[in-house]
Hints:
Radius of gyration: 17 Å
Strand content: 15-25%
Helix content: 25-40%
Distance between the termini: 37 Å
Number of helices: 9
Shape: globular
Amino acid sequence: MELISEHACFGGVQRFYRHDSVAVGLTMRFSVFLPPQAQQGKVPALFYLAGLTCSEETFMIKAGAQRVAAQLGMMLIAPDTSPRGANVAGETDNWDLGVGAGFYVDATAAPWNRHYRMYSYILELHELMVREFPVQAGSIGIAGHSMGGHGALVLALRNPALFKTVSAFAPVCAPSRCPWGVKAFSAYLGSEQADWLQYDASALMANSKTPFPGGILIDQGLSDKFLLDQLFPEAFEAACQQAQQPLELRRHAGYDHGYYFISTFVETHLLFHYRKLNGEAR
């Protein structure tokens, strides 16, 4: 693991790292905000998974989350969104497939299956953070935006022992049904649609029973240009009702899909995770 850079930030430190990933088989990058409380001992942590075209820098630069994280004493962890340097033919031809668009799945179809293993990579990074950083292992949550919101919901639903809390901003809730998801899943997982459902949050939730009794938080802008064709929050809402899963799905007039929207509500998400991870009822 190599430290690329570090920057003083709200009494803590913002760091950027690279390391050799076993899951991906390439060098991967991630970022960590260490709050000032991490100098004295272990702290709760929140993984944040970014969306299409983004990287490990996007959330840390644009969301304005470090101020609140420093006040709470919460570590922030942001991985990259895909392998870099996999040299798959055509991987930079489309903004919604390949580089910057790993969709947090483990590809099974050639040629993507050699390196595009972002689902396993997030689990590998979780293990690395617990081993090498002052993280309270039992107090880790996960959040994400758009493609990353899809990833956060799927990783939490499949690994509730690792991720104790989950929230999302404008997540892709039913990727098996939307153009982004169909394109990515067809390439990464092949044509057998039954194989796609293990990475579809709405399908996973529909087959669960109250996986997160403390609730799930989702914020969705109603001026989001992707809302009708790509996101399908109503599908996840229906699945939560079927699973008897408490869900706070907040719809906001006037807000779009970008980081002005995320930065407006990021404090609410950090407080949501912090309180749940610390056993508070609200």
